[in-house]
């Protein structure tokens, strides 16, 4: 471990629908607590060397980037192909207009790459010869990861792994002393071993509701994995509207889990490599 400090911003901490859910009158959706307003889950990493990395491009990306005054993106990691993590990708367009800057590179798995080429062909497929390009064609470079691997992104070492998310798989990663485990209903024994051996300073982990869930980690399941991984600090993310921020904090305090916190939109954290 070195003293290189990287910063992390929580762009969004909510589940697939975001909070408040459209048309919902529940207590969390109607809450006046600012931390109960959760846009779709996304992260923004600023490395010690000055590189800017975006993790996931959900439908709320425009609002998130404007709120955080983000003006430059070097690289994008997309964890999986579900709409709440992908469908804001068109918002990258203005970040690529300067021809003096390199294209934005996008790292994702094979399934997500195929989805991008089909659903967003106007971004990734060559236009018909001589046809006008409405709005300007963004300069994006798609890097498909055929299997999880250790790769370099913006000069930084990342270790990727896949966890089951219902019938699909989601990419997680380790960067220095930070690990991100999102949208999964389990962590494989092999990945659990990797995460524990990484001696993490910070873990951000999926936590959608109190009850068991078919495709996500529940509150208790997330706590069980945190106890096995033993990071210095752990943050819960991707909460649904059945979980109020202060409710979750109270549950953690009641169990004396002072090293575990509840993520919220706009939160800023640090970790080292």
What does this structure look like?
It is built from seven helices and 14 strands. The chain has 273 residues and is of the alpha/beta class. The chain has a single domain, classed as Ribonuclease Z/Hydroxyacylglutathione hydrolase-like (Metallo-beta-lactamase, Chain A, 4-Layer Sandwich), CATH 3.60.15.10. The chain has a seven-stranded mixed β-sheet. The chain has a seven-stranded mixed β-sheet with strand order 7-8-9-10-11-12-13. The longest helix is centred in the C-terminal third of the chain and has 11 residues, at 219-229. It is globular.
The strand line-up of the biggest sheet is 6-5-4-3-2-1-14
CATH superfamily: Ribonuclease Z/Hydroxyacylglutathione hydrolase-like
Number of strands: 14
Question: Percent of residues in helical segments?
Answer: 10-25%
Question: Count of DSSP helices?
Answer: 7
Level-2 CATH architecture: 4-Layer Sandwich
Largest sheet: 7 strands, mixed
Low-confidence stretches: none
* C-alpha termini separation: 5 Å
Classify the beta-strand content into a percent band: 25-35%
CATH topology: Metallo-beta-lactamase, Chain A
- Anisotropy-based shape: globular
Summed up, the domain count is 1
Order of helices and strands: EEEHEHEHHEEEEEHEHEHEE
- Please write the CATH class name: Alpha Beta
């Amino acid at each position: 471990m070195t003293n290189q400090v990287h910063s992390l911003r929580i762009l969004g901490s909510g589940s697939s629908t975001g909070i408040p859910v459209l048309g919902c009158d529940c207590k969390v959706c109607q809450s006046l607590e600012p931390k109960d307003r959760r846009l779709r889950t996304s992260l923004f990493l600023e490395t010690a060397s000055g590189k800017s990395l975006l993790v996931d491009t959900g439908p709320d990306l425009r609002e998130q980037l404007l709120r955080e005054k983000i003006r430059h993106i070097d690289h994008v990691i997309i964890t999986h192909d579900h709409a709440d993590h992908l469908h804001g990708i068109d918002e990258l367009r203005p970040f690529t207009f300067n021809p003096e800057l390199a294209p934005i590179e996008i790292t994702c798995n094979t399934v997500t790459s195929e989805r991008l080429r089909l659903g967003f062909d106007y971004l990734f497929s060559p236009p018909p010869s001589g046809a006008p390009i409405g709005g300007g064609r963004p300069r994006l470079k798609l890097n498909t990861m055929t299997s999880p691997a250790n790769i370099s992104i913006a000069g930084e070492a990342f270790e990727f792994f896949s966890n089951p998310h219902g019938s699909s798989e989601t990419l997680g990663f380790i960067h220095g002393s930070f690990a991100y485990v999102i949208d999964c209903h389990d962590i494989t024994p092999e990945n659990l071993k990797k995460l524990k051996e990484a001696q993490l300073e910070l873990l951000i982990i999926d936590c959608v509701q109190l009850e068991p869930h078919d495709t996500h980690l529940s509150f208790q399941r997330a706590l069980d994995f945190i106890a096995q991984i033993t990071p210095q600090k752990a943050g819960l993310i991707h909460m649904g509207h059945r979980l109020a921020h202060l409710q979750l904090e109270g549950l953690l305090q009641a169990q004396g889990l002072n090293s575990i916190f509840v993520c919220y939109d706009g939160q800023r954290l640090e970790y080292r490599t």
